[in-house]
Design a protein that fits this description.
single chain, 142 residues, mainly beta, Metal Binding Protein, Guanine Nucleotide Exchange Factor, Chain A, 7-stranded mixed β-sheet, 3-stranded antiparallel β-sheet, 2 helices, 10% helix, globular
Length: 142
């Protein structure tokens, strides 16, 4: 993963108008304006199918189902990204707290946040708390 306070240039570059045309208003609010969907409403929160989760904005592979776990926090949770270079982590001081924001490295869309040391017993002791609306799911071939 890339940790950065200054973001490297995205590979996928679109104007604000192009993003607004591509994404629904709710998708835009989360992916481009760093919003958060309400807890327990996302389509992937309780998804237990095998497959790959991709960035909804650009299609980059981000997480695999075998790295997803039930954290009961209201959003899909993963203990590691598919490939560390596919995400960027940066400090987020919004809402009066210090968190680590997770962005898609390809298009710089907001995905969610990562938390450490919560005691979930995962191999990494990390919880990538990702908005369902930031993702699409590609089921594994049967």
């Amino acid at each position: 993963m890339k940790r950065s306070e200054e973001l490297p240039s995205p590979t996928v570059v679109k104007s604000d108008q192009e993003w607004r045309e591509q994404l629904s208003p709710d998708e835009y609010a989360v992916l481009r304006d760093a919003g958060t969907e309400r807890a327990f409403v996302g389509e992937y929160t309780d998804n237990h199918r095998v497959g790959v989760y991709r960035c909804r904005a650009c299609g980059t592979e981000l997480f695999r189902s075998e790295h997803k776990f039930d954290s009961h926090c209201g959003w899909p949770s993963f203990f590691t990204p598919l490939a560390g270079e596919q995400i960027i982590e940066r400090t987020d001081g919004s809402l009066g707290m210090r968190r680590t924001e997770v962005l898609c490295a390809t298009c710089h869309s907001h995905l969610g946040h990562v938390f450490e040391g919560e005691g979930y017993g995962t191999p990494t002791d990390l919880r990538y708390c990702i908005n369902s609306i930031s993702l699409t799911f590609e089921p594994a071939p049967e």
